[in-house]
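Homework help board

Subject: predicted structure for assignment chain

Our instructor gave us this sequence and asked us to write out the predicted structure in token form, then describe one feature. I got the tokens but I'm not sure how to describe them. Can anyone check?
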Amino acid sequence: MAEQPLLLLSGLTKRYGTALAVCDVRADIRRGELVSFVGPSGCGKTTLLRIVGGFVRPDAGRVVLDGEDLGPLPPNQRATAMVFQNYALFPHLTVAENVGYGLTIRRRPAAEVARRVEELLSLVQLQGLGRRRPSQLSGGQQQRVALARALSLQPKVLLLDEPLSNLDANLRVQMRTEITRLQRALHQTIVFVTHDQEEAMSISDRIMVMDRGRILQAGAPAEIYERPASRFVARFIGAANFLDGTLGNGIPGRTAIATSLGTLIVEKVSNGLAIGDRVAVLLRPEAIRLGPPDGPAEPNRLLGTIAHAMYTGAVIRYTVEVGDTLLRVDLSDPRHRPAFHRGDRVSLRLPGDPHLLPSESAADAGGS
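My token output:
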């Protein structure tokens, strides 16, 4: 028998005047799972998180936690804890007092509070800093204090609202590791909200992509990235090139796609598409191979001109002009690859197993 979800969101809807912030959201989250809600600003992800935490009341729908309908309960009576974007630490309290605040107001014995605070400071690697004020800590340390305070009451679900957005790039990466370490050590269920696709991809068991108050697709990071349900999802989770084309007959076991750049030969299509269907061919930048322009003609090989090159250290991001089309191509480890420059002629080898979408699917209309 399948395990029942720990957290069930059923038909959640919220309006602010005429603006629809959350629209009929349905999702289930399993015990011990880290699920990220991602999407552009204004997509409804933070409103959804605040509904779960009890800070916003929905116009319709239910939040059920471990079989209990949380509808009538205020935030302090829910088995959830929220870490806000700005951490919301009490500046006049020490680190230890911040971490133990929830236990103190619930009148737990002083010895129990002190023991639990020490356990939590050790868990988030802040031993010996209990007497400092938040202003004496770095941003990463303040984030750890906020996490420890949220964990003090042992919530069934930890809610994280853009918790890393105020940190610099290197510290964000460190804190991603810290959050996943804590989640696994405690088998903690976490609902994480972010607009950072890479952040969601790196820490999540599942990702739920939102736009205009709706969940467009839910799945494991690899599924979302490799098999997006729409152009919007493909472009939001990573970079994407699209070629429009028509399915035709190829050699046995293969399918031909007629595009404006020529005919592509791909693996046999088996996802409900048929010969004659219009499709959108998804080409991830890292899946395209660049090389010198000379060489024999072969399937899926195009010729183009470098329009732009951007060196980022680990990757060179090329924009290649092929006819009237611009394709982005990412090459990793540039130290050990020949570099191309603006104006260079190059060959492009397109993958034989691209993801295909119906060209005019309803899902494509849900975003831009």
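Reply (TA_rk): Your tokens look well-formed. For the description, you could write something like this. DSSP finds ten helices and 20 strands in the chain. That's the kind of observation they're looking for.
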